């Protein structure tokens, strides 16, 4: 009896292990389908004809794919909004990395502001934008900055900069001091050490931080809604305008949503290696 039970135990262990593995795969597959289905559906909707969009039961695959919705979306302020979003997101990201890298380097290497400054910066990032959007609107209205790039860029920079400093501080702190000290011995100035040694070594961290800053600025809604009218309007403001009280332009919604997704998707593919390295930088001591 003991011999039979000992033979059955490995089989039970094997099947239980296989069951756990397949269970994990099943959960991951369900979560993946749950997350990707809306994206795939909105992309397919952008290629459907108007009759296919409202057809019941729904038509999953377009029978006659068409780009008419893309043409219509670009004509309905879509092209202007895409250009504005690209300019605002790029400018705020570059400024956040430029100013944030200098602030983070000062905090990481020289302890500027003491131990409470990094926590204070992170607390600023946690402030809800809606809490300050109306006072900011009154200030910018007095300055005649409403519906300008600089107004939206400045507010995005205000919220991106604390996050940029917080993130880059950790990356700079991981760089060995001996590397920088050897550069100083060789006659490199402090600015040269920062630009030629520290920044290249922290490039993955800069890329990871820049992507998150770009995503925040690209998707931001409250400031773009309140501070823009026509000239500086962004995709996040134009897209809800396609939902009317009597009808919804589902084809144009799908087309403009696809256009809004593409830059982030392409950016993620281009910097995939650096992004993965930047997110894991400092995780292993």
From TrEMBL:
The chain crosses the membrane at residues 21-44, 86-107, 119-140, 152-172, 193-218, 247-271. One of its GO terms (biological process) is transmembrane transport. SUPFAM superfamilies: MetI-like (SSF161098). Belongs to the binding-protein-dependent transport system permease family. Residues 82-271 form the ABC transmembrane type-1 domain. The keyword Cell membrane applies. Pfam families: BPD_transp_1 (PF00528). Keywords: Cell membrane, Membrane, Transmembrane, Transmembrane helix, Transport. It is found in: Cell membrane. It comes from Aerophobetes bacterium. This is Carbohydrate ABC transporter permease. Its main location: membrane. It is a multi-pass membrane protein. GO terms for cellular component: plasma membrane.
